[in-house]
Structure formats: structure tokens, C-alpha cells
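Take a minute with the sequence and C-alpha cells given here and flag any C-alpha cell that looks odd. Thanks in advance.
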Amino acid sequence: MARFKFRLQKILELRKRKQEDRQKELAGLKKLLKEEEKLLEKLKKQGYEVRKKIDLIQSKKENSLDMEELTRHSDYLDSLRNRILSQIRTIRKVIEDIENKRGELIDASKEKKIIETLKEQQYKKFRESLENWEKKRLDEFGMINYSHRRDNK
């Protein structure tokens, strides 16, 4: 009897590849999220440092040079706040992308599982068919053997 050959093997391989691709894409998005979060922390740290400088300038005696420096630091702090808000939006977008990619990965896994289940069912039927075929052959050999022994007596 022939070996087991699954007719949908190519489709199963495509589904496996699709699942692996989604896993890689999800891993890439998670890595991107970490990078974006690090950048946000860096911006927050810069903001904290600028606020400390502003507080230091304000605690000194006021003169025109200090006021110019204070204005420059305040403008930079405003710029940092805008960059922080923009970075928060970027992080939210990446998180949304991660959730979407998780959904795609779940769908790809389900699609692959359906084909794998079908393969298992077909393999089980193949094994049963093979066992029945072997059983019939053994029965036939037994009958032939019995027939030869009876005829030889």
C-alpha cells in the first residue's frame, strides 16, 4: 500500500509560513514599542533637566542675561512637551498596531490549525485503511496456509 500523502500539504505549508510571518511582524512591533518607550523616557528626562535649570535660573538674582536664558529654556521645554505628546501618540499607534497584529496572528493560527486537524483526521483514516488492508492480507495468507496444510494431509 502507498505512503500517506496529504493533498493539502502545500496549503498547510503556506498557512505555517503566514503564521510565522505574523509572529515575526509582531516581534518587530514589540521591539519598536520598546524603542519608542525608551525615546519617551529620554524626552521626559530631558524635560526634567530643563525644569531643574529653569528653577535654578529663577532662584538666582534676575538680570537680563538670566531672563534670556530663562526664555530660551522655557521655549525648549515647550518644544519638549510637544515632542513628548507626539511620542505618546506614536506609542499609542504602535500599541494599536500590536493589537491588530495579534488578531492577525490568532487568525493565522486558527487557519493553520484547521488544516492540521484535517491532516490528522485523514492520516487516521489512512492508518485504519492500511491496518484493514494488512488484516485482510494476513487473513488471506492464513486461509491459503490452512488450505495447503489440509490438502497435504
Remarks:
- DSSP finds two helices and no strands in the chain.
